[in-house]
Design a protein that fits this description.
8-stranded mixed sheet, 314 residues, 8 helices
Length: 314
């Protein structure tokens, strides 16, 4: 059975022009579940990873509000790493419940298992000194707490940014591989995984949010998955974005993508991290990366749409 890892952004559940209610997130999860069920029906062994950028920001802000308003109750402060764990559980439930419902409707006999996932990072990673991962949603600049690191996103709005170190090792990759061999659909790597640093034989959680696409690439390599699908908001990667010379990429080698990345075609704030994750996956032994949107995912896997990136010798 051919295995595939599908990486879903946290923004896939929280649309830019839609109130981020739980009902809205449930509706989006139902749409996503149809894509995953389509792949399962076509005979693929599917692992799903997901981001948590908006959701982990909601959790942190909610905890800060409660802590400030109920100070006399001495509610303990919520660290970012625990909010990442909380978001894994919450989003994992929303996705797995939606997927279970879809599978039942189609009479597909598959188990869905959500795995709480831990990611080892380097405590010397420069990301700890240069936070750049946005979490939460944009808020007016004057409303941002003074202890936040922020980036401006236009119209006097800012988003909170936190450290985003590169993943070194996914502790649960072998568990994911075992579950896949048992014909289960696996949800793992939520929010990039709970970040840990190594101190001797101890693993210490740290405040950060690991990039979901990099974690997805590493997990796929460690679990022996050969095809990686990175879902984003557009059907194709595009050259010369926003200009009259804009051009969709349908097929490319990793060398071509590397050249375009070096030329500045894919900025760090948009497609850049996905391209970097794709190249790391291929350089590590992966065979194919598809970058596309939710609507095109199933057809793209059949070669009809999306951007396909492969090694030169394929």
């Amino acid at each position: 059975m051919t295995s595939v890892l599908v990486a879903i952004g946290g923004n896939a559940l929280v649309l830019e022009n839609e109130l981020p209610t739980l009902d809205a997130q449930h509706r989006r999860a139902e749409e996503l579940s149809k894509v995953i069920a389509d792949l399962a029906e076509e005979g693929y062994s599917v692992t799903v990873t997901h981001g948590n950028g908006p959701q982990v920001g909601f959790i942190m802000r909610r905890a800060e509000y409660v802590s400030q308003s109920l100070e006399s109750l001495r509610i303990p402060e919520l660290p970012l790493w625990l909010a990442v764990a909380d978001s894994q559980g919450g989003i994992g439930h929303i996705l797995s419940n939606a997927l279970n419902c879809t599978l039942r409707e189609r009479n597909i006999k598959k188990c869905v298992t959500a795995v709480v996932t831990h990611c080892v990072v380097d405590q010397e990673d420069r990301a700890f000194k240069e936070p750049n991962k946005p979490i939460g949603v944009p808020i007016p600049k004057e409303q941002a707490p003074i202890n936040w690191e922020t980036i401006e996103v236009g119209n006097n709005m800012v988003r909170r940014v936190v450290p985003s170190p590169k993943p070194k090792r996914i502790l649960e990759s072998c568990a994911v591989a075992t579950l896949m061999k048992d014909n289960q659909i696996v949800i793992a790597g939520g929010g990039g995984g709970i970040p840990l640093i190594e101190e001797g034989h101890r693993l210490i959680p740290v405040d950060a949010v690991v990039d979901k696409d990099r974690t997805s690439a590493l997990m796929a390599l460690q679990a022996g998955i050969k095809t990686l699908i990175l879902l984003t908001g557009v059907p194709n990667v595009v050259l010369n974005w926003g200009t009259k010379n804009q051009e969709a990429i349908h097929d490319a080698t990793n060398a071509e993508m590397h050249g375009w990345l070096d030329d500045g075609q894919f900025p760090a704030g948009s497609m850049g991290p996905k391209i970097e994750a794709a190249l790391e996956f291929l350089q590590g032994g992966g065979e194919r990366v598809i970058i596309t949107n939710i609507e095109t995912a199933a057809s793209a896997l059949a070669g009809q749409g999306g951007t396909h990136i492969t090694k030169e010798n394929q």
